[in-house]
Amino acid sequence: MGDNSNIIHVKFDKDFYYHKAMEKMRQQDFVYAESLFKKALELSPDDFVIIPPYAECLVELNQTTKAEEMMYDQIAKDHFVTDYYFYLSQMFMKTNEPNKAFLFGLRYVTEEDDQDYFEEMIQMFEVKYDNQTVVEEEAERFVIQHIFQYLFSKGKLQEANDFIERQRATMQEDQHIMNLKAMSMLYNNQYEEAEALLQTILEDNPSDIYALCHMTLLLYNTEQMERFKLYLDQLSKLHPINDEESFKLGVVLSYLGKHKPSNQLLVPLLKKAQASMPQLHHALSYNYYHLGYEEEAKRHWQRFEDSVQYHSQLPPWKIDELKDMLDSHVLPLLKDEDYRYRLYGIFLLGHMKHRELVMSHEVWEVLENLPDYERLYITYTFQKLHLNKIGFIDKGMKLIEQSEYQHYGKELFVSWIEHAEMLIADNESIETVDHYVAASVYIYLKMLNIKITKKEIKNSFNITTYRLNKAINAIVSI
Questions:
Q1: CA–CA distance, 469 with 124 (Å, rounded to integer)
Q2: CA 153 to CA 140: how far, in whole Å?
Q3: pLDDT digits (tens, 9 = 90+) for 385-439
Q4: For residue 246, what are the contacts with CB-CB under 8 A and spacing of at least 6?
Q5: CB 85 within 8 A of CB 78
Q6: CATH code at 386-478
Q7: In CA terms, which of 7, 83, 367, 425 is 20 to 30 Å from 313?
Q8: Is 157 left (phi over 0), alpha (psi -120 to 50) or beta?
């Protein structure tokens, strides 16, 4: 055997990729370095040794936003917070964003009492002010708002809420921060807590545009319609005094269906700092769609999707498709006099993705007033209750839905429900369902004089001829 004593075994761990990346950074091979940093971070997420140089590498590749967000995520996790303030300040100096550079730098200085860095910033930015405490509080407020808005825009609602909760008590009593906290509670469905907080803000400042927006949304979501109409009327009369207020009011009005006034506020912001915010393009997509400009709506929806990594939103045209499906197909079935059609309607509703986005009051009322048998099926469908007989019917409908015969529509499904109930009443074994469904489909199609062979049916449902014939005999003999 050969001598393997001179073979060097390389361990491809995070240290290997990190040191290799640092070597490539020194050689200014930033593209290769980035790929190595990425591998190192995958092996050791949240690693403080890796993230700062990785962020520096990303800046060199003009991927500043990714670098910025990487460090915001660490601050949100309460990891090396003051250090990341410093690195963000340095990064913003390099990207020529002096306001952010100074404010994040001041947060670092305040926490670490680094007077040398403070003097360096004062000279670099030529800052003059009368009250250092006021400026420090403004920096603290800005950083909290900035990181919260990032987390919120990415749909990280719980992280945003936790981030606010970690701030010192004095800041949590600040009206700007209280509004952020109320917004977080509102989107986390903590309506009672949010309303109490908003009432506190509005008692102190009845014209606070952010609190008025949040309260209007809260009343809308909790169906307090009389108060909602009063607040909506108040919103319609507001005149924002800056771009931030225009953005907030415009997004809220879009959500509430006031698309034209929303557009009047939001379109001018496409030339401002808000142009990079995903909520702007989400709102504009809905506005343009409902104002009849579908191509413009699709363009803004694409910009929205390009700016978020994950989301569970649907474009307005998909919402309309769902509404049409619900109103023209599902709701008439739920209202049908024949309970079998109602069961099929519940089946369709249970298989509608994103149904919660379009469920109207009428649908909820119909569901709540259905007889016990259908309500039992609702419980089975939505609460995953284990019921053998209802489960037998449901599994059969699922097999039809997945088959090539589902296009024959509701009558095929209703025929299966009838056959299934006959089998249950006749005490047939219902542990397996596929052969009974195959037999039901075969009988239904034959009844319509549609050319179909047993071979085609058994192949479609992957059963034997023997089991198919046995199931056909079981149904026709009842």
A1: 88
A2: 20
A3: 888 899 999 999 999 999 999 999 999 999 999 999 999 988 888 888 999 999 9
A4: 240, 265, 266, 268, 269
A5: no
A6: 1.10.472.10
A7: 367
A8: alpha
